[in-house]
Design a protein that fits this description.
The structure is a homodimer of 303-residue chains. Chain A is α/β, with parallel strands linked by helices and 303 residues long. Chain A folds into 2 domains: 84 residues, Orthogonal Bundle (Arc Repressor Mutant, subunit A); 211 residues, D-Maltodextrin-Binding Protein, domain 2, CATH 3.40.190.290. Chain A contains 10 helices and 11 strands. In chain A, strand 7, helix 8 and strand 8 form a beta-alpha-beta unit. In chain A, helix 1 packs across helix 2, helix 1 packs across helix 3 and helix 1 crosses helix 4. At the A-B interface, helix 1 and helix 4 of A face helix 1 and helix 4 of B. Chain A binds a DNA duplex (25 and 25 nucleotides) through helix 3.
Chain lengths: 303, 303
Amino acid sequence: MIELRQLRNFLALAEHLHFSKAATAVHLTQPSLSRQIAALEAELGVMLFARHSRAVTLTAAGLDFQAHAKSVVAALELAIRSTRASARGERGELRVSFTSVAAWTLMPALIKRYTDTFPEVRLELNELLPKDMEKAVTTGDTDLALTFKVSDEENSCYFPLHDEPLCIALPADHPQATADAFDVGQLKDAPFILSPRTIAPLLHDTVLAYCRRSGFEPRIRIQPHLQQTIVNLVAEGMGVSVVPLAMRKMQIPGVIFKPIPQAPSVEFGIVWNRQNDNPCLVSFLRHVGACAAETHSDTSALA
Amino acid sequence: MIELRQLRNFLALAEHLHFSKAATAVHLTQPSLSRQIAALEAELGVMLFARHSRAVTLTAAGLDFQAHAKSVVAALELAIRSTRASARGERGELRVSFTSVAAWTLMPALIKRYTDTFPEVRLELNELLPKDMEKAVTTGDTDLALTFKVSDEENSCYFPLHDEPLCIALPADHPQATADAFDVGQLKDAPFILSPRTIAPLLHDTVLAYCRRSGFEPRIRIQPHLQQTIVNLVAEGMGVSVVPLAMRKMQIPGVIFKPIPQAPSVEFGIVWNRQNDNPCLVSFLRHVGACAAETHSDTSALA
DNA sequence: TAAAAATACTCCATAGGTATTTTAT
DNA sequence: ATAAAATACCTATGGAGTATTTTTA
């Protein structure tokens, strides 16, 4: 059975064409190298070198074997480098899930920064509803979730990244849309569009709490799943809503986004499974930690 | 230093995902395989397998290493096969020189038969004057010469392949060209075109002997090197000549090729260097020998 | 408790070293 | 006579086996 050591020694001799010199180069003595080559030739059943008394030359078959042996050794070196890179999370695959709101806020910049630093990691991006995130993370269907704040559990960890303020979305032809002094209380009778609590409890609760603090109970008529659907329905004049401020990036005509003074906000972050040993997840979290450290402070939870 | 044995054992484990079963498959005991893998992981500095109490699984890095290790092993197997093929003369390069007359006679069919049987041998075909053949063979500039008969010498060997009859080449407007009873003697005063003796002694001597036997000494005026040049000059009406019969393949207008009853002929064959250890030369000679054995008999000189 | 991998310890096959011979110029 | 590879012989490393322990579901 041919071993790599024999290929390395063969390559040394093929290069030096001198047993003693080649033996020195690979830290062997001449007799050892002599036997190595003889054993290799015996296993192949092929003479690789022609021994003339004053010169050693490669045979035609030896020349062919040299080219192939080089590629074998190169393939092994590639294997080593690639595998170490994989272990460092510099190569491989990372499956990222995100809620629609994350797609409008932190996801694009976050993903771009990561792929700039780790270009060899193949990303699988998948939009999910917030309610399905935790399950996807625990079953291992996804490596990483960009979603609303959740509480840490046995396996799933959470790290905060972003606070998104809310704003009021009004049809452009609503009386309050152009009012000098905006009054939230005037919205109490307007049909209210809000996603169901089961989809995204935190967002739902934050909006409801804000309405109640403003002195009214919203009359919820339509319950879409996605924020962009809410905005589209507001644009059609079907009601008003309270949505993440970033939704104004949609730049859809017919909707006015009213910022709220001392606005309530929803928190976003990363959710992952502590059991997940995908090195790319580790590299992602470390990368996010390094970026976060430049702005906030506490990144210890990423360890 | 990583060895192929470790890669083979790794691949077995990656396939079976069970130390005992994989160990059996590669004819080892479980503890041996265990240490092999541990040593491999230590050298890489990377965990390749995740050992759970009831199951062994590949890590992300292990999956990557598996793919690369497969290609390393495959590269070695290719190297072995290719090198053995090289040694058998089934792969490599063969430099063939031939005289122009060989190009009009035996060379094309000979080369075609060889390339059909040995498609992986790259052929370098080169036309040479007969006088330069022996030198090219002895210096090693060429592996094989297809040329006129020569006597065996210390290093160069000759094997006969073909007898080419001669014919007379006349301008179409020559009186003898259309004569009912052709008479060679009528050519004695015509300007005679013949290549110099230094270029191809055998051909030159055969033609001269024929002329003298026919009762005249040719009046040689022009001495081209190539037979096709002779034919072209005959076509221009510049004289007559005696050329290999195959030259009529040129189908050039203005020339009549007169076959000669009991024609003299020139012998062709292969010349090679006994010192030359190019396996493709051996495969060529063996192949020619096999083909020749179907027609004539004595191929012992090819050994 | 049982299944499976890791560890401890022993042995020997073989890679490698030293000394010497062979070979060809 | 000399340079260089092959051979003979010896040594010791490390790969492989057996027996045992550890681990976790």
